[in-house]
Amino acid sequence: xxxxxxxxxxxxxxxxxxxxxxxxxxxYDRILAVNLxxxxxxxxxxxxxxxxxxxxxxxIALIYALINFISVIAxxxxxxxxxxxxxxxxxxxx
Length: 94
Known about the structure:
- By secondary structure, the chain is an all-alpha fold.
- It has three helices and no strands.
- α2 packs antiparallel against α3 (57-93).
């Protein structure tokens, strides 16, 4: 019963994070909202894993957490250095 309430609360928070990602005034607000969505997704997978008695879902949650972390770092690095410098490096090699 209580885990069902937790799952519903996580879904509500995930919907609010998607709203922030779509309406965020800056790109960094949007990236933070997507990161929050990914973190809450990991928590939701863990709760669903416990509700259904499937501990193998925790492996999926861990993999999703790693992918979320690496992708947010990659996107932040991209916006830190800018796409023009990426194009300059590609032009130098080829």
